[in-house]
Design goal:
Elements: H1 6-21, E1 25-28, E2 37-45, E3 48-59, E4 62-75, E5 80-89, E6 94-97, E7 99-102, E8 105-109, H2 111-132
Antiparallel strand pairs: 1-2, 2-3, 3-4, 4-5, 5-6, 7-8
Helix pairs in contact: 1-2
Amino acid sequence: MKILNKTATNIFLRLVALAKENNGYIKLDNKKGVMPLIVEKVEEIENYEIYSLAHYGTQNGDLMADPEMCFLLAQNDKDTIVMPYSFRNDYMGIDQIDLFIENGKIKGIRHKAVAKNVAFANTWLKNIQNQQLI
C-alpha cells in the first residue's frame, strides 16, 4: 500500500493543524499569483478522517477543482498514515475514488491510481509549502 513520503506527510499534517485551528477549514492565499488553497475536513469514516486539499478556478461562472485531492488520515499512538483517497480535476473530467472502506477497514484499493496520486501528492505538497509559505 502506497502512502505519502515523510516530507509530504509532515506538510499535510501542518495543513491539517491549521484547518483544525479554524473549525476544520482554512483558505490559504499568499496573494502572489498562486491559486488559493482550500483545506477542509470533509468526513470521518470509522477510524479515519478525510481531508480535502483543493485549488479552484472558474469556468463559465462554475467553480472548477484544479485539482482537489482527498486524503485519508489514520493516526494512533505509533503511526500516522496519509494516503490519497480520491482525485478530481474538473478541467480534465477526472473524478475518482481510489480507496473503499467498509466497517472501518480498507476493503479495496485501486493500486495503480493510488501510486500515481501518491507521486503527484508528494510533489504537490512540497510546491504548496513553497507557494503558501507554510
